[in-house]
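Researcher: Please translate sequence to structure tokens.
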Amino acid sequence: MLIPTFVFDVADLPEEEQFAAWAAHVANSRPTRPVDHGPFRARAQFWQMDPLLISEQWMDAFTFDRDEAMVRATPTDRYQLTVVIEGRLRFVRPSGDRFCEAGGCSISDLTQPELMHAEPSHTIMVHVARWFLDEAIPPRDAHGPLPDTPAVKVLCDMVVALVRQLPQMPAASAMPMARVLRDLLAAALADLPPRPSEDVRAPVRQRVRGYIDRQPAGGLVLERMCQDLGLTRSSLNRAFKAEGGVMAYDRRRRLMALHSRLADPSEPRSVAELGYAYGFPEKTHLARAFRAAFGYPPSEVRRQTSLVTPPVADPGSLQDVYKTALRRL
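Model: Translation complete:
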């Protein structure tokens, strides 16, 4: 059994529908184009290699805009590595624009805002779950074009070579190849500074995060967690000091997951049902906590989603497969 290859091409659609058809696949950014009319070239193929999603695309010029509101509205926890084969990417920064040329690569931390302009291009994108990369290297301050080092060059060559072989690769090779690619990415990032928001007690944080992931939503008990992990309350709170303590971290984490479900137009459950599922059984408590975290009530997410979200993908369609794969990361 081979790793399935999914192919998407807008060439057969009417010109006025081509850009919108491609934009419907985009998650976590607002896509625009330099001109709002005429044909738009967009051809892509992608492969699911949990916990990676790899795609190769041939695109006309476009812009990705992910501001603070978009980050809050579509919470995610992964990186996006982009290898440029043809074309050029321009990343807008307050300190001055940065460029990624053909033969180079960039990495985007999707928990941070970004404004990027792409010329007509041929690229390969690798979406990497944060937890998967964190297994290989402590969190790095990685957001933008990567330096032209030998390790980065090897990484780019490996990505291109891997994509050439994926259509013939057995499904059983997906995870071994994902680990190889992950480790090369870790080597390419090794000389970058640590991520500023991460505490130096990363091993403690990693253990606690894994423990929290295994608990029912809203069922975390601090005393039991200390006993199960062999940690003191003070060490737990020091490790999560930036978040206001471990319980505040868990609450914020559940609120962000709840926000993501509310912003998903395919989610049929009501606000109250989702609140219960994510550990907020009381409506008043949910409304108060949600407004404190995001500045607006949960009902506003549903209202805005109904106004701006493109039509829901048909079950089993390429759009549905692609976005489902991203959510699974």
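Researcher: Any highlights?
Model: Residues 246-262 form the longest helix (17 residues).
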